[in-house]
Amino acid sequence: MGPVLVLTGGPAVGKSTISRLLAESRERAAVIEVDDVRQFVVSGAAAPWEGQEGLRQQRLGVENACALATRFVAEKIEVVISDVLNPETTALYRGLLPDCLVVRLVAAPAEVRRRAGTRPWYLTEEEFALLHELDRSRPVPADHVLDVTVLSPAATCLAVNALWAAVRAEPRR
Questions:
Q1: pTM of this prediction?
Q2: Sequential DSSP letters for 29-79
Q3: CA-CA distance, 25 to 12, in Å (whole number)?
Q4: Domains parsed from the chain with CATH numbers
Q5: What distance in Å separates the CA atoms of residue 127 and residue 49, rounded to the nearest whole number?
Q6: Which domain of life is it from (predicted)?
Q7: What are the mean pLDDT values of the chain's consecutive 10-residue runs (173 residues total)?
């Protein structure tokens, strides 16, 4: 059993797809989509970019995701978390899941737009642009950055799995 894997990056870089592929390739694994955790708040929900309440709910989403991950790991279930991180939330993950592996997926803007056009869309154009600008201007302190512009989902999964396996093979910190 290795550390919790946290996949991050802007919208449409492949976090959800790769999270699922990785989990499906294991005997026992869970995927925690932090956007889904945040959507538990139905009345009064605020997006992370919507002022202090949005930041508070973003933090709560991370804390809840980490609590879920901790319970899964206690039951010997590997965990992949998918979330759009910033430097502050990355520090929160590292504090609550000290051994976590953070992998940031990046892709060229044209490729991200192409991928976004192949799935249901829940962000406004402005929100999509804002999240990608923040990802570029305030990159998270990830353990690894993987450019997935020309990688298929299968190739991305292999690359991330190799990073995850290397950490699992290391002695515990």
A1: 0.87
A2: EEEEEHHHHHTT--TT---TTSHHHHHHHHHHHHHHHHHHHHHHHHTT-EE
A3: 22
A4: 5-169 (3.40.50.300)
A5: 9
A6: Bacteria
A7: 88 91 95 93 88 92 97 97 92 95 90 74 68 73 94 95 85 55
